[in-house]
């Protein structure tokens, strides 16, 4: 016998009210200001949130609304904050990308970001104005899943935010990058774990410049109970460095990447690129009477920075929590072992119970060749021989308001001479051009992007590039070393269980193939997450369904041609 209609209606109403009750609104009040900090024991001006760097961790539950009221108290500097990994479905103006989705927040102004965290997982936030991310404006976003929804269990969790740190200001770095000849940013002075590190040459600095006993650079301690299983949420917000992360003596089982569940695999150490997040499980099953190192080491570039360290300490053990372990910190694998890192990338696939199959074929394929080039003697990065520049009027504002002439209406090239280009040689003509044109995608279409790495301006040199897509997750269909052949390699794509990610590495002299659906109305950046590389032109922008975007908040306007709108 069926239930009476009135009973069904009441049941539906009760379920709806329960869902509403579960979704909360999380309010945050942030003031952005410069403060003197000692992140690596050296006194330096840093961009802080409420006086701290890293900023506060945003904690929410899937379906919650996050509201962050940002006051810019930087006296001479604009601000924009990107919520990295949050897709901003229905709120493209809250993506926080200056020049793409909003005008920056001016000194003294207040701007409120409001968005829904629609998916559980580990994410991050950081500045997206100039090279400001390097100055300390960053932090974690942790979105909890419903109880019992995750395909793994653990007794407790810790969060690990990895970063690299320079003593020069971002102004000095940016000026050097734009100079002829270039003044490269160089290797970082320290590697930070949760905002704490140690500059190894502290004693050689001028009196008062470095304080090795300052509490802000005291080694971070992670406490565990013997016999328990812990989830470590690990995020890299580095400006330059690819890192290898290790917890001495403890194997790590990788279970999450960029908010998606991974087919579990065990590693001694984890390669993590700028913009990526992972969750790993460890068992606290080692000798509890000594401490263990957490170690962060540079890979893919010849290291010029000491190992970043923290301490794992067991409750109830005989060792003081802050006592350095009796061993030297692990140095990780060889920095130039590309295939070691390549194999980890290939091993990262979707959890069998959480596979989201990709569409079987693409409607459009874009081949992008990453090259290092020159314009008027200045070194740039380019895609298909076009170096990207941001417009003064944000694309989203310009396109919604019909501001013609705000950016180049000609689309950038979708391919390159892949049949004849030698990716292992220094290109014969390094000259390139600039453009702020974008790729317009048919709404709902399926798009493949193949990123091809190549030799730089110096012979026998190719670097790792972590690429991040705003507003979407993409399926990682395949990796390769050598030149991508569109007539051959698509047959090797993993269409069975590809992982969904928002950031992925392109290995030296290699290619990486992605697929995504252009189903999130808005304008979205896609760029190398190395701060200097994006500053030098390694990025593009996609537009899709912008006519479906609702009325824009007035607060995102006021710059460029939108001044007065």
UniProtKB/TrEMBL annotation:
Alphabetical list of Pfam families matching this protein: Cu-oxidase, Cu-oxidase_2, Cu-oxidase_3
Cellular component terms per the entry's GO annotation: extracellular region
Signal peptide: 1-23
Required co-factors: Cu cation
Catalysed reactions, as listed in the record: 4 L-ascorbate + O2 = 4 monodehydro-L-ascorbate radical + 2 H2O
Region of interest (Disordered), residue spans: 314-333
Domain Plastocyanin-like: 40-145, 158-316, 414-545
Keywords assigned by UniProt, alphabetized: Copper, Disulfide bond, Metal-binding, Oxidoreductase, Repeat, Secreted, Signal
Keyword Transmembrane on entry: no
Main location: secreted
EC number(s) given by UniProt: 1.10.3.3
Localization, UniProt: Secreted
Molecular function terms from GO: copper ion binding; L-ascorbate oxidase activity
Compositional bias annotation for Pro residues: 322-332
PANTHER family reported in the protein's UniProt record: L-ASCORBATE OXIDASE, MULTI-COPPER OXIDASE
Oligomer status and interactors: Dimer.
Family per record: Belongs to the multicopper oxidase family.
Protein name listed in UniProt: L-ascorbate oxidase
Species assigned in the record: Panicum miliaceum (Proso millet)
